Amino acid sequence: MLPSVRKANTTLRLFGIFKVPLIWYCRPKILAIDEQQVVVKIPLKRRTKNHLNSMYFGSLAVGADVAGGFLAIAKAEQYGKRVSLAFKTVEAQFLKRPEADVIFTCRDGALIDQMLQHTMNSGERVNQAVTIIATCPSISGDEVVAQFSLTLSLKALV
Q1: What is the crossing angle of helices 57-79 and 109-122, to 10°?
Q2: Is pLDDT above 90 for 79?
Q3: Is there a contact between 60 and 92 (Cβ–Cβ < 8 Å)?
């Protein structure tokens, strides 16, 4: 069973503080997590915006990173295994200026399950692209403001 939203946010905060301070600095918050998807919010504040008062693309990259990676880490823990996780390539399309809080959604839970099964069975590193969609619901509803394709690289650790 995946962690509750509360536990997931505590884990994310601690990971940001101790492992990747830039994640902590941007203050992402997990809004929902289940077997198929994770939904993450990054608030538009002074620390995440650019000179145009929209979200800085570095902050958008942090949101995509968290949405794409957290589900894989949570699912690996669910299997009782540790994995080495990295992103190998990043492709992004910035479609509209995100001028409010941004919601990042990754719905590739089934793909991540397949990747974890493969690496746990074979011991080999597995690379697959996961898709993350960014929206600004308070301004434009479900209209996509950015779309990311991150090549997730997983390897089961002994």
Answers
A1: 60
A2: no
A3: yes
